[in-house]
């Protein structure tokens, strides 16, 4: 017999994030990975919108599928040149903001 879970007692990610952000160490690490997270999220979103696989994107961007995988997994620091090739392969543009 499965145990029923009372979903009214579950914590949302946003509630957890608010609590975790009170920790200076967590906040520092969170802020450090944000550019990588945003980049990965945008590449994945644009690729999926175009219904492309990582391999297809890599071929059009003249790179390897492993490179795309590392970017999407936040395990790489791409050059502007690579980002330009990826944007061109996705028929989109790059917009950078420094605040």
TrEMBL record:
Gene3D superfamilies according to UniProt: lambda repressor-like DNA-binding domains (1.10.260.40)
Domain HTH cro/C1-type positions: 43-97
InterPro entries per the UniProt record, alphabetical: Cro/C1-type_HTH, Lambda_DNA-bd_dom_sf
GO molecular function terms noted in the UniProt entry: DNA binding
Designated name of the protein: Helix-turn-helix domain protein
